[in-house]
Amino acid sequence: MKTKVFIDGSEGTTGLRIHERFAVRDDIELLTINPELRKDPEERKRLINSSDITFLCLPDAAARESVSLVENDKVIIIDTSTAHRTLEGWAYGFAELSEEHREAIKNGKRIAVPGCHATGFISTVYPMIAGGIMPSDYPVSAFSLTGYSGGGKKMIAAYEADDKTDDLFAPREYAIVQQHKHLKEMSIITGLKRTPLFSPIVDDYYSGMVVTVPLYTDMLNGGASVDSIRDFLKEYYKNQKFIKVADSDDEIASSGFISGNQLSGYDGLKIYVTGNDDRILLTSQFDNLGRGASGAAMQCMNIVLGCDESKGLNL
Q1: In terms of Cα–Cα distance, which of 137, 247, 129 is closest to 195?
Q2: In this prediction, what percent of the chain has a pLDDT beyond 90?
Q3: Which residues are catalytic?
Q4: If phi over 0 gives left and psi between -120 and 50 gives alpha, with beta otherwise, what is residue 42?
Q5: In whole angstroms, how far apart are CA 106 and each of 101, 109, 148, 225?
Q6: pTM for this one?
């Protein structure tokens, strides 16, 4: 029997990408809403409670409203918004962090998909703290380079307009008041005692992301080095389909350049460990629309269904 799926917010960037991915699935029955009723609470309520799984691809307030409409206790909610990522009772949808995370997704009825910037940050910082290499009070900083698709329909339209303004041709730093919405999960999920200093940058390309965390080796534990951290992360993520750690002779890292859009269209994530004896860079490279959004949501669904985690995804 096919799994009934409803996408609440199917007109947004993430919702559209999830919808597209179902085109290659024969195990899903997609419940669709009349476009004229897509904001109607009663119709959304009917479809949510008729589904086995509902994806929420909505702003935070609308996502909370959708959860309040659930009356069928068998419905599983996979939320791509920021609304529920650090709340008790919600599984954090990053299965590779630990077996506990994977089991929580597998058995959960409420699953929160990580934010795109947070995905890159947590992929390196979580294991470093869990492994005792980085102290939890380390004063972490990070920067992130992303394609403009992460800003949603309005930003996409602005960047793709024939008469776009001159400033859109250059990288733009934002969230300069240090209040980015992903900071909360970046701190709480990793166990950091200090909120990270975080500088995201949006650039004039469609999709793809790199998130870099710079570290001083003398502030880490256990005589950390480029090689020892690379070996540690390789072991931490061994046998994981979606996360790979680059070798020391990796062609990209050896070139001296790591491109923001290198993994556009790919649903995995690649980690680079570079630097020297004094200063190390941990860099995660992935697609902000893939592993950073719809791809991660689909992986969570596959875990819930007990099928191959990569089914319908591009690895």
Answers
A1: 137
A2: 88
A3: 116
A4: alpha
A5: 9, 9, 32, 36
A6: 0.95
